[in-house]
Predict the structure.
Amino acid sequence: MIRIHLGRLLGERKMKMSELSLQTGISKNALSNLYHEKTDRISFDTLDKICTALDCSVSDLLEHVKDEPGETHEAIS
């Protein structure tokens, strides 16, 4: 599973999602979906904009966590 650490990064930088939206041009809805890990894909352009605005690397934003045996994930559309 992939964990998205947008909330932690925003908190560390004392930045609101609305400010990140203004800086990146990414809609608040799209950022909210990332924040709440309710998305199953993210474009390289979006990653680039977020990492540039937050001055972080992709590995700061995304983390791969091994699934526990028997754990399943449903695709989100």
User: Anything to note?
Assistant: Residues 44-54 form the longest helix (11 residues). Strands lie at 2-4, 62-64. The chain has five helices and two strands.
